[in-house]
Amino acid sequence: MNNYDVIVVGSGLLGLSTAYQAQKAGARVLVVDRGAVAYEASSRATGYLSLRADDPDEAPLAEMAEKLWDGLDEELGYPTEWTQKGRLWVAFSDKQLEELDATYKAFQRADFGFEIIDADACRKLIPILSDETRAGLYTPRSGHANPQRVSQAYAWAFQDLGGVIVENTPVYSVIAEAGKVKGVKTATGELYADRVVLCAGGYNANLLEPFGVVFPVASVRLEALVTTPLPPMYEVGFIGLNGLSIRQTKRGNLHANGGPHEWVDVDADHEPAKPNTPIVRNLVRRMIEAFPVAKGTQLLRTWAGVLDITRDQKTIIHRFDHPEGLLVAAGAGHGFGMCPAIGIAMADLALKGETSAPVDRLSLDRFAGLSPDWKVQKKWDAGSYNT
Ligand SMILES: Cc1cc2nc3c(=O)[nH]c(=O)nc-3n(C[C@H](O)[C@H](O)[C@H](O)COP(=O)(O)OP(=O)(O)OC[C@H]3O[C@@H](n4cnc5c(N)ncnc54)[C@H](O)[C@@H]3O)c2cc1C
């Protein structure tokens, strides 16, 4: 007998937002995670919403997410520290100026009100920017939130509605019979539901392989750090063209992440390895280049996160016809910002089989015929780096 209508595999933000929306719609939802709630990419992210202006396939979903972020504290009943003061890409060299110009041209595909601003205007937005600042690209509509608060808010709001989260329980496979989903096989036994939603990051690929699906995600490790607090000085999201993102938290800490990124393998039973001191030192060097005042701070914490990047770096939202009842979502490196909208789309697809969310161009169909060795071809196989 099914105790649940929907089983969600993975308690990151894609899983939790889907679970929250499905439970809110009246379904009985169980979330199962290999580890602790939102312990992987979702709570380790920087916390930016990207409007995906260079991508007409994704921009409508990002705009939907933008509207939802605005009311999310009220919706969930817990603080997320969302702030929407825009985002600033900053160039510090001639080469980076060229990249800034290329980014500007790419963003013109969407009408989100971007503008190139000079160094003085950049410093009005972020007073601690270095004297080497050359120019910036400013978008007023992006925002950021605290990833740990957001993860907590979704988990608590879901549980407040009666939703159940089971931790420390790896899912090994999806059970399907006669073309229909029946549940999942876990480390502690089988769990049953007619709908199974896979939100297990890079491990989605392993869970889909038995169904003959080449799921186009690769897992990548990304380093991050947070300094001791400075007086609050800026609220826009900083993106340096030196490969570093730095937001200032509500308490004044500088929270940074950046490349290079290392491609890794994931498995069901073990947490992916995370620390990487030499790369963190490199992040610190670039942070001081951008914000010289950071030299007076100390590192409070450093960590790494493993996220899944899809082959075309766009979100995947897919409902399978065979087996019926199986769905999958992948965040493509910007799932944090998109999560309020992805949750609604996935819950609709799981419960009603359709959604009015703009996800038509985000299904797996775009990867038909993908070769199983696509990662090797793209040099995204475990052990290699990119920036
Ligand atoms: C350092 C860093 C910075 C980032 N910055 C941003 C940003 O600024 N903006 C943005 O939009 N995105 C950002 N991202 C990306 C974003 O974090 C991800 O796109 C998003 O969190 C993906 O959510 P998820 O729920 O799919 O994955 P996750 O949060 O990784 O959750 C997947 C869950 O599945 C569980 N799981 C895996 N295998 C199994 C299994 N076999 N059985 C059961 N459970 C399993 C894992 O334990 C995990 O809890 C960043 C990521 C990192 C690492």
Q: Gist?
A:
With 387 residues, the chain is an alpha+beta fold. It has helices at residues 13-24, 41-44, 59-70, 72-76, 94-107, 119-125, 147-160, 204-208, 277-290, 335-352, 374-377, and strands at 6-9, 29-32, 48-49, 87-91, 115-118, 135-139, 143-144, 164-166, 171-177, 180-186, 189-192, 195-198, 217-227, 237-240, 244-248, 254-264, 299-310, 316-319, 326-330, 385-386. The protein has two domains: 6-73 and 147-216 and 312-380, FAD/NAD(P)-binding domain; 84-142 and 218-310, D-Amino Acid Oxidase, Chain A, domain 2, CATH 3.30.9.
Describe this structure in words.
- The protein starts with 5 loop residues before the first strand and ends with a strand.
- 28% of the residues lie in helices and 27% in strands.
- The longest helix has 18 residues.
- With 387 residues, the chain is an alpha+beta fold.
- The strands form 4 sheets. Strands 4, 5, 6, 13, 14, 15, 16, 17 and 20 form a 9-stranded mixed beta sheet that branches.
- The mean pLDDT is 94.
- A hairpin with a 3-residue loop joins strand 14 and strand 15.
- It has 2 domains: 207 residues, FAD/NAD(P)-binding domain; 152 residues, D-Amino Acid Oxidase, Chain A, domain 2 (2-Layer Sandwich).
- It contains 11 helices and 20 strands.
- Helix 1 runs parallel beside helix 7, helix 1 packs parallel to helix 10 and helix 3 crosses helix 10.
- The radius of gyration is 21 Å and the shape is globular.
- The structure holds flavin-adenine dinucleotide (FAD).
- The site of flavin-adenine dinucleotide has 39 residues, from helix 1, helix 2, strand 13, strand 17 and helix 10.
